[in-house]
Design goal:
The chain has seven helices and three strands, in the order βααββααααα. By secondary structure, the chain is mainly alpha-helical. Strand 2 and strand 3 form a beta hairpin.
């Protein structure tokens, strides 16, 4: 029977006991999921608590997950690496568990990353220039002085300038 508290477990998920007592559906205990995903068990438990993943049962005291949890964990990692919060990532899964991502949200995040890349590139270039600048002191270097002025602006003003919609 499909568990309504865990909607992203594959539809019709049943464990059929065969004569050799092996199930026909591949499940992984939490230690195996941790090993294969590289995530500590505590993170897996936290993700389950937040509703990002769901165990399908227990084997003794250990949580057991459907094998598709590894793909879901990969999607979560991709979202985090892209700068999405766990709450935002949770909203990107449909009630059936697959990804249901708003393309506009992806474009907005890509635009945000572009702004961050431009800002960091300018900062890197300025630091490289300051390191190689022939000026007698950094304070006498016009490029370094521009870096100082930019860094001294209030963070609120910098964020406002970065947001271009």
């Amino acid at each position: 029977m499909h568990d309504e508290t865990c909607p992203f477990v594959p539809e019709g998920f049943n464990i059929r006991i065969q004569v050799n007592l092996r199930s026909s559906v591949k499940t992984l205990d939490i230690a195996e999921v941790a090993r294969r995903s590289g995530l500590p068990a505590s993170t897996l438990r936290y993700y389950e608590e937040k509703g990002l993943i769901c165990s399908v049962g227990r084997h003794g005291l250990r949580r057991v997950f459907a094998e598709n949890v590894l793909e879901r964990l990969s999607l979560i990692a991709l979202g985090q690496n892209s700068g999405f919060s766990l709450d935002e990532i949770g909203g990107m899964f449909s009630t059936k568990g697959g990804p249901d991502i708003d393309r506009g949200q992806l474009i907005a995040k890509a635009d945000e990353l572009d702004r961050t890349i431009r800002r960091l590139t300018a900062m890197r270039d300025g630091l490289r220039h300051a390191a190689a600048c022939p000026a007698p002191s950094h304070i006498e270097c016009p490029t370094f002085r521009r870096l100082l002025r930019h860094a001294a602006r209030p963070a609120r003003k910098r964020r406002k300038q970065q947001k271009v919609y």
